[in-house]
Structure formats: structure tokens, C-alpha cells
């Protein structure tokens, strides 16, 4: 028990280090942006593009601490993260946590739903096609190879044109309604399903040839029962490992998807922030994506213990 607690503590500490590292990169990336930050902010607020005098820029420098030494600015930025302070939006004059927080739930709902649908598609095609004959196996492999190579923006545009514009089965701008969420979810889920299916298929074929599968068949278990109760649990482990990465990648892909379908979320916020050079908001979204990666990988470790308790026991020794 003590070793398990120590292992969890180590992973949490490593997660904190990753987030701080992402915050550090984000902070120094802001400094690397060409031009003076106070000048860029003044131009944004006034709608003018000109050279401002030091006296005119002084209030902004004092308000945002641009004149402080870099070390002081960095420490203020990092310590602010632990207080839940991501800074103030240049354009909206509100805390970044409020700007992002109001749009985070639609994005997380979209990504979690897409991950669930991707798993359903991947497992369904794997169960139905692996070693089911040359034709079915070939079709399954071809589907996975094709979908895994598709970019999100291409899938989104095709789904939008075919099912929303031409067939009018779904709204063009779906918002957050259940029916309007179908196409955005499929946009993210289809490429990921192909990728997860490829990984699961290879392991599935390998496990089907193991002696314990033959033993289960000789005991009279049906083929479907063998696949579901014995083979699938082992075959999904490599894909589960990638699910932590996949969830973070889906958050990134949601930026594109939300803009294609006019859906609210951090994607819309990010595009607006980039266009207006609202650096605190951009940095906050980057940190949110990094946090999603970290949390997702912690959840993957927990999923390992559920799928195969022997792995958790081995890690605790």
C-alpha cells in the first residue's frame, strides 16, 4: 500500500513539473514575440498603429509589470499558476480563467464524446473483421489505414458539405445541441478510431494465437465470448496507452472543429486571441491543453489497474 501511494505521489509530482515546464515555455515564448508588449497592447486598445512615448506607455508597463526584471515577472507568473491566476485578458479586461472557463465545458464535452465514439468504432471494427476471412480483414485494415490518415479539417468540411449542406440532416451551425454535436464528434472521432484500430488490430491478432485462447475454445466458449472476455482485455492495452495522448490531441483538434462548425469553445477563444495578440489568453489555453495531457495520462494509469490488475501490482513492487 505504501509503495502504491509513493508511486501515485511520484506521478503527481512529475505532472506538476510538466505543467510548470509548459508554463515556462509559454512565458518565454511571449517574450520572444517581436515588438514591445506595451506598444502592442496600446495599439490594440486604441485601434491605432503608431510609436508611443514612454510616458504614454508607463501606465500599461506599471499595470502589467512589463518594466520588472524578467526573473521577477517569471516568478510572479509561475506562482500565480498555483493560485489559479493565469493573468488578465488584454482584450476582454477579465481574468483569463473566466475567459477560458466559460468556454471550456463545451470543448471538454466534445473531446470526451469523440474519444468514446472513437473507441466504439475501433473496437467494433476490430471485433467484426479481425481473422474473419480475407475479405473482411482486408476491408477492416483498409478502413483503419484510410481514416487514420485523414486530417480533421478535411473530415469536418466533407461531413459539413454532405450531411449539413446537401442532405440537410444536421444543422450547419450546431451550437451545443445534441443533434448539432454529431458532426463535430465524428470529425474528431473518425481519424482517431482508425489510429486506435490499427494498434488494437495488431495486438488482437497476436493474442488470438496465444495458448490460453485455444484452451478457452476447447472448453466450449463461443468465438464472440473468447474475443470479448479473453482477447479484448489484452489487445486494448497498447491503445489505452495512447488514449492519454489522444485526449490531448483531441483538445487541439477541437480548435479546428469548433471553427468549422461555428461551435462555442476554447477553439473560438484561441483564434480570437491569436488574431488580437491577446498573449495571456493564448498562454492560458496552452496550459489548459498541457493540463489535459497530464490528467489524461494519470487516468490511463488508473485504467491499467482496472483492465489488468496484475500491471498495477507489478508497478507497486
TrEMBL record:
| Location relative to the cell | Cell membrane
Q: Name one Pfam family in it.
A: BPD_transp_1_N
* InterPro entries associated with the record: BPD_transp_1_N, MetI-like, MetI-like_sf
- According to Swiss-Prot or TrEMBL, what is its membrane topology? Multi-pass membrane protein
Q: Does the keyword Ion transport apply?
A: no
**Record's GO cellular component terms:** plasma membrane
Domain annotation ABC transmembrane type-1: ranges: 104-304
Where would you find the membrane-spanning parts of this chain?
12-33, 108-130, 142-165, 177-196, 235-256, 285-307
Keyword set includes Membrane: yes
Alphabetically sorted, this entry's keywords are: Cell membrane, Membrane, Transmembrane, Transmembrane helix, Transport
Q: Which GO terms describe its molecular function?
A: dipeptide transmembrane transporter activity
Report the family membership: Belongs to the binding-protein-dependent transport system permease family.
The name of this protein is: ABC transporter permease
Q: Which organism is it from?
A: Phytohabitans suffuscus
